[in-house]
Prior knowledge:
By secondary structure, the protein is α/β, with parallel strands linked by helices. The chain is 20% helix and 18% strand. It has helices spanning 7-11, 37-47, 68-76, 87-93, 104-112, 140-145, and strands at residues 16-18, 27-30, 54-57, 81-83, 116-119, 122-124, 168-171, 180-181, 185-187, 197-202, 207-212. Strand 6 (122-124), helix 6 and strand 7 form a beta-alpha-beta unit. It comes from Natrinema zhouii.
Amino acid sequence: MTTGTSAFDDTVSFDHRHIVLEDRDDVYVIGDVHGCLDALEALLETLELGGNDLAVFVGDLVRKGPESKAVLDRIRESPRLLSVRGNNERKLLEGEASLPGLDAADSRYLQSLPTAISWDGGVVVHGGVDPSRPLSTHSAGDVLTMRSPDGDGYEGPFWFETYEGPPRVFFGHTVLDAPIEREWAVGLDTGCVYGGKLTAYDVRRDRFHSVTGADHVERSSEKFVTLDGS
C-alpha cells in the first residue's frame, strides 16, 4: 500500500494515515465489531478479500462482545485490514476501562491506530465531524466521539443530517437501525454486538454487505437511530 500526502494532511491537527486507493482493487469500510469474532469472520468470508484488496474499520474493535483479543489478533495480523481508533480503544489506552488477557503487543497495536484514515475524497473516522466548522478546527476528540454538535447523546440532531463535504465521511459510533448512505456521509455501526448486523461498504461499487451478529449485549432503546438513509 502506498501512503502519501494530500491537502487533507495540511489542514488537520489530528493524526491520520493517508492511503492511495489506486493501489488497491476492492476497498471496503467496516462498522463497529465490538469483540464479535464470529460476525467478523462471517463478513470477511462474504467479502472474499483478495491479495490486493483492503478493508478499513471505523474503530471500536473491542469491548462489549466476548472476543476482543481474538478480533485484535485477526485484524493486526493481516496487511489487508486497517483500523482507526474508536472511543473504546481510547478508553483502554487512557485507563478508563480494562480488558483481561490483552498483552503488550495488543497495547502497542492500539496505540498505533490513527484517529483517521484518509484518501482523496474520503476519510474514515469513528465518530464524525461538526458540519458548522472546517476540518482544520477539529481535534482528535471531536472526530472520535461526534454524534451531535450540540451534545454527545442520541437526542440529535445528528451531524450527518446536515454535513456537506467534501470529504465523504465514513463513520461508526452511532448505532443505526440500518446503514446510512448519503452523498457525503456513510454510517456503518448497525449494532452487531446488540444482535444487529456487522456492515461493510463497498467503496468501488457503492453498496453494502451485512451479516447478523449475536445478541451479546442488551441495547438501550435510547441508543437506537432510525433514519430513512437518504
